[in-house]
Specification:
- The protein has two domains: about 120 residues, no CATH class; about 280 residues, no CATH class.
- The chain is about 80% helix and about 0% strand.
- Helix 10 packs parallel to helix 16.
- The longest helix is centred in the middle third of the chain and has 28 residues.
- It is globular.
């Protein structure tokens, strides 16, 4: 007889399976599914759990012996015309039944957390049918091409790249470099799709937030051009630019959290302080801006292969430049590279310094100061773009707003106490 602890664990797993089955079954019952409802889903999931328990002692053939009859019953029910209500003859409920059987097996096989996530995911996926269908309807051919290009970047190119260092200083690792491309492309694609779905209804707040998620520089250029053609739009354009800059601070923190947790820990407080300054400036601009909606900036597809290759080349170039600067000039050379690289792109330089710190080549305190120096350079570059492209109506506001943000960033990078 199994020990009491094993019996208690089995009962717990069985309870989790039953709860997940009831959850998904409740959703199907409310949706009017005729193939299976709350009781059937609970029975199927519990059956999968019992099959998983039996397979642990009798062998894996028990799973096949339980799964095949269930699959046959589902096929017969579907062929008999018992599809979804309202004439929907799809396979959603049938597929959910098979998924929940396997979820029950997982729950009893020592993967209770994974089973919980899978079962809850099935329930949410079923419940969000109208929203998912609406999303698919809103995505045009260009948007779907963006998704497929991201699949190419992430799932086709990445796995075949070698995972070792090449080139001078051995810092060029093709797989790790492309992984950074996938990270940045995925982040940009999320903002791009969100902006496409929200469209002109997004308003000023979403215009800045989504624009910053895709490209704060592109957002600055787009809204500066709009302000030049419509002087009354200048205050609103400045607000959108500042919101995009606030998202950039968050984006930098997210990249550090993913690639270099130690740097993120050291950078969290100074980045939060800088972000607070950006939001304070945005708050002042918000009080001055007219209460009119602004559509998100027209942004390019961030998953274009050309865009991905350009970022990869930039990232590799910065890796080489950073390694050479550190070898020739020490930390002073790194600050020069940070400022020059940060003028046009924050992602690549952030990832470069994060990777260096993760490899032990750069202290976390020095790494975040270098990133912040690049951020100050990037802020000054966007101030110049706004002043040049936005015309007289935007110039004063943009220079003042970006100037305050740049000065605050420089002061934090220079005077913030080092972590002890």
């Amino acid at each position: 007889m199994p020990p009491p602890a094993a019996i208690s664990e089995a009962f717990l797993n069985l309870g989790v399976a039953a709860g997940l089955g009831l959850l998904v079954g409740l959703q199907r019952q409310r949706a009017g599914a005729e193939t299976a409802g709350i009781r059937t889903f609970a029975l199927v999931t519990v059956g999968g759990a019992l099959a998983g328990l039996a397979a642990g002692t009798a062998g894996p053939w028990v799973l096949a012996a339980a799964f095949l009859p269930l699959a046959a019953l589902i096929v017969l029910a579907h062929l008999g015309g018992r599809g979804e209500a309202a004439g929907d003859a799809g396979l959603t409920t049938e597929a959910a039944l098979l998924a929940m059987f396997l979820t029950g097996v997982l729950a009893m096989s020592g993967w209770r957390e994974l089973a919980t996530v899978a079962g809850a995911g099935v329930a949410v996926l079923l419940h969000l049918k109208p929203q998912l269908h609406a999303l698919a309807g809103r995505l045009g051919e260009e948007d779907f091409r963006a998704v497929m290009q991201f699949v190419l970047v992430a799932l086709v190119v990445l796995p075949v790249l070698p995972d070792r260092g090449f080139g001078p200083y051995g810092v060029v690792n093709p797989r790790r470099a492309w992984l950074m491309v996938v990270l940045i492309t995925g982040l940009g694609l999320a903002g791009y799709i969100a902006a496409k779905c929200l469209g002109a209804r997004a308003g000023t707040l979403a215009a800045g937030l989504l624009g910053g998620l895709v490209s704060s520089t592109a957002t600055t250029v787009s809204f500066a051009r709009r302000a030049r053609g419509a002087p009354g739009f200048a205050a609103l354009a400045a607000l959108v630019m500042m919101l995009a800059a606030a998202v950039l601070v968050f984006r930098v923190g997210l990249l550090l959290r993913v690639t270099a947790p130690a740097v993120f820990g050291a950078a969290l407080a100074p980045l939060a302080a800088w972000g607070a300054v950006v939001l304070a400036v945005a708050s002042v601009l918000h009080r001055r801006a007219p209460r009119a909606a602004a559509a998100p900036a027209e942004l390019g597809n961030p998953s274009e292969l050309r865009t991905a290759l350009t970022f990869a080349a930039l990232y590799v170039g910065i890796l080489l430049a950073v390694a050479a600067a550190q070898d020739w000039f020490g930390t002073a050379g790194l600050f020069a590279v940070a400022v020059l690289s940060g003028l046009t792109d924050m992602d690549a330089i952030t990832l470069s310094f994060g990777r260096m710190s993760a490899r032990g080549e750069l202290g976390p305190d020095t790494a975040w100061r270098l990133v912040l120096a690049a951020g100050v350079a990037n802020t000054l570059f966007k101030a110049g773009l706004a002043a040049t492209l936005g015309g007289p109506a935007l110039r004063g506001t943009a220079l003042a707003a970006f100037g305050v943000v740049a000065a605050a960033g420089a002061a934090i990078a220079w005077w913030w106490p080092a972590a002890t």
